[in-house]
Amino acid sequence: MKFSIMTRAAVVALAMTVGAAANAADITGAGATFPFPIYSKWADAYKKETGNSLNYQSIGSGAGIKQIQAKTVTFGASDMPLKADALKKDGLVQWPMVMGAIVPVVNIEGIKSGELFLDGVTLADIYLGKIKKWDDAAIKKLNPSLALPSTNITVVRRSDGSGTTFNFTDYLSKASPDWAKTIGADSAVEWPVGVGAKGNDGVSGNVAQTKNSIGYVEYAYAKQNKLTYAALINSAGKKVQPTVASFQAAAANADWANAPGYYQILTNQPGDASWPITAATFILMYAEPADKAASVEAIKFFDWAFSKGNAMAEELDFIPMPASVVTLIRKTWADSIKNK
Amino acid sequence: MTDFATRAVSIAPGSAEGREKALAAFKAGDRLFSFLTKIAALTVLAMLGGIIISLVIGAWPAISAYGFDFLTTQRWAPNARPQPILGGLGPLYGTLVSSVIALLIAVPVGLGIAIFLTELCPQWLRRPVGVAIELLAGIPSIIYGMWGFFVLGPYLADSLIPGIIDAVEHIPVLNVIFAGPASNLSLFNASIVLAIMILPFITAISRDVFSTVPPVLKEAAYGLGCTTWEVVRNVVIPYTRVGVIGGIMLALGRALGETMAVTFVIGNAFRISSSIFAPSTTISAAIASEFAEASDLHQSALILLGLLLFVLTFFVLAAARLLLMRIERKQGS
Rounded to an integer, what distance in angstroms lies between the CA atom of residue A166 and that of residue A281? Predict the structure, then answer.
């Protein structure tokens, strides 16, 4: 990737804000907002145990990738994995850190969490602007017993590029041929309708604030902000609620061992119990780090998180990586990252 | 009598040689001072030039990829294949329309406040109202954004906007401009927030220039039996036109570039809608939302938008200058 003068200026400016709070024992990282709740929880516990602190800037997946490419941070974090050849080109090592889920959130008077059911096609049609009102026949058909108002749907989506958007639109592309043909999956897409909000917290705030709205956020954001979430109908045609069990069912399908660079997208997985919009979030580090001491400290933190952080992850409804995958990742660290 | 020059550098008074030396030292000092101020002035020009050059360099990939189509394309599809389709029409439209609506609201209100303060207001009320207006200018823009998001947006969408939509439902043209559905975040909401933000500029400058009108002119008009309105209309405003227009242009400059408050309340949608109650976006809001995550052509297009804003603001100021020059010439003849 070529960098223009403006990019460098922007990266330097960001690096200054990132670097300002750092000191020698700090681990610096930047990227995805999706795993921010769990990374900050781990960081708190890690600081209490070891005295080392983690300085994680949740500035978005794309920005995280840029920061690590500009070498202003020790690790980058992204919800959109880089493909193996891109990793090779930049000399980066990538692994999944934790898994989570994205849920549709709604604000409709009288409707509680989990009462409203949507399927991929309906969700895509709402985001395409084809379904304009909550009492549309397609929504009524999925929810015959719910009293849905005849009001316009306010669609809320991200205004910034985002790994959450990537996984959400990837799911819509798999579930709806219309969506795949006209919009597609990416971290920023050409939204046909809706208002744009910045970050998972921006979407949460907008949905909480706007009557008759719908948005999509990482599950922890929905839970912490006490938003009403909708349940989904998965690829097996079964109704599923967003729970750790349904997230785990989807995650269990992933074949990490045979994915070069751990490149795996977990949306629309088969299985009766699978939550359809599940995603892993990834860490990026250099195979040959410029600052080896910092790299060692970062790996220590991730190692600690894998061995002691699982309970904390589950508390926030993130799904820890399975033990077998952690073994693989530890081997990747030993083989690929030259810290000595 | 002491020679001040020699005294200042503490050389033996009366010595001709010492005096010459002292004067030479002054001359050198003067030259150094003029050199330093010149450097300071040139730095501004160099920075301005540097900003333009880096904007043009950064925008070049987008300029060569899209050319003039950038100004006429409404689609903003950073993920289109094989290459992104990016057009600046949406943000350009949003920037101009939100600023114009803001001016339509703020100019009459601002002038009204200024006229009240200078012509009609009882002495004891002048200071509190004046200070309140100046405080409005000191509120950080993010606060306006939050207020617009949490308070104004829901109020407009629940109370005011549905009423307007119903009222104009059967009136042609108006029912297109004021069409539903009502949305918390809209071009209209952003325009109102902007109007409140630029109000202090218009008021403060108008008030200052209104108070420069010689009392004798006003007294003469009142002596002829003019009403207050006639005095304001025929004496105060014509006398101060230049200053008032200057204040409005300054306000327009602020409205065009305002970022944070607008990003909060405009809805960040690139589509152009005929209704002002629909979400929209502005150049600065688009850059603020997307810059961190953009790369390659997408990023270059955002820089090009920045360049356009730069040029737009430049033309607004140039037009203001031209207007003022014409008024001055007319008054001179």
Answer: 12
